[in-house]
Design a protein that fits this description.
The chain is of the alpha/beta class. The chain contains 12 helices and 8 strands.
């Protein structure tokens, strides 16, 4: 059976109104635009969604709207992680997985577990989950790096762990995983700007932030790269690269929400402790978007 998480996944944002309530109408429009743009799957309630600032009721409502709007047109990966292993196991047991094809589970943050602790944590997540699990390595946010040896241990010992979203920025580590992993284990880029080089090294796609705004272009770049059409992939990569970099200048999803407002897709509202972009960055992104379209 073909893995549903190959190609371009989109780390979906959550549109908020000025009153900071969830704008479900805009959320539906975002999903339809992303699917029409050729994305292969959607990641719900990940970091980019600002799920950490939502109540349980809001998260359930967002999940329901995403599942209903997608309507089986593409797979959905659900963000479900944290730094309390027992709590995650309990949450998985209470989660409705109708319409959900997999879990994205971030490395435990703040606690700073060692590699043995990380391995035991993810084994429990995998054993508890009724759907496949992709682990998420983003040491810039969590304070701990899932080392290549730990990733490979989990890949070989846990059949329900089918891949890793690698956002360490460590290409040497990525290559070590790709070189030694089981054949069907996925290595997914977690950095838009590194997606093109990572695919040429053997990665199986990306979970992208920029694809919220540029689903057609990002999906096309990934498809060309995975087919080995390096020239076309490279052209698209370098065309998007200035925007890819700029949207992270003041953190995520600050930059992508600014770009989406410039496009007229959403209002530029975030929930504290995140704030909207500075005027300087907003103008920079606007100018780069004009250049992108020229």
């Amino acid at each position: 059976m073909k893995n549903p998480f190959i190609g371009t996944g989109v780390a979906l944002i959550t549109p908020f109104r000025k009153q900071e309530t969830i704008d479900f109408s805009r959320l539906e429009s975002m999903i339809n635009n992303i699917i029409a743009g050729g994305a292969n799957y959607i990641v719900a309630l990940g970091t980019t969604s600002e799920a950490a600032t939502m109540t349980d009721t809001e998260r359930h409502a967002v999940q329901d709207v995403i599942v209903e709007t997608v309507a089986d047109r593409c797979p959905i990966m659900l963000g479900l992680g944290g730094n309390n292993t027992q709590s995650i196991r309990d949450t998985i047991a209470k989660t409705n997985f109708d319409g959900i094809s997999g879990i994205l589970s971030v490395a435990p943050y703040y606690n700073k577990p060692n590699q043995r602790g990380l391995a035991q944590h993810f084994k429990i997540v995998a054993e508890s989950s009724p759907v496949p699990v992709v682990i998420y390595n983003v040491p810039g946010r969590t304070g701990v790096n899932i080392q290549a040896e730990t990733t490979l241990q989990l890949a070989n010992e846990c059949p329900n762990i089918i891949g890793i979203k690698e956002a360490s920025g460590n290409i040497s580590q990525v290559m070590q995983i790709i070189r030694n992993k089981p054949e069907k284990f996925l290595v997914i880029s977690g950095d838009d700007a590194l997606t093109y080089p990572m695919i040429t090294l053997g990665a199986s796609g990306v979970i992208s932030v920029i694809a919220n705004a540029l689903p057609k272009e990002m999906s096309a770049m990934v498809k060309h790269a995975m087919k080995g059409d390096i020239k076309k992939a490279q052209e698209l990569h370098y065309r998007m690269l200035p925007l890819m970099n700029a949207i992270f200048d003041e953190g995520n999803p600050t930059g992508i929400k600014a770009l989406l407002e410039i496009q007229g897709m959403i209002g530029n509202t975030l929930r504290l402790p995140l704030v909207k972009s500075s005027k300087q960055l907003y103008n920079k992104i606007s100018a780069l978007y004009d250049e992108f379209n020229a």
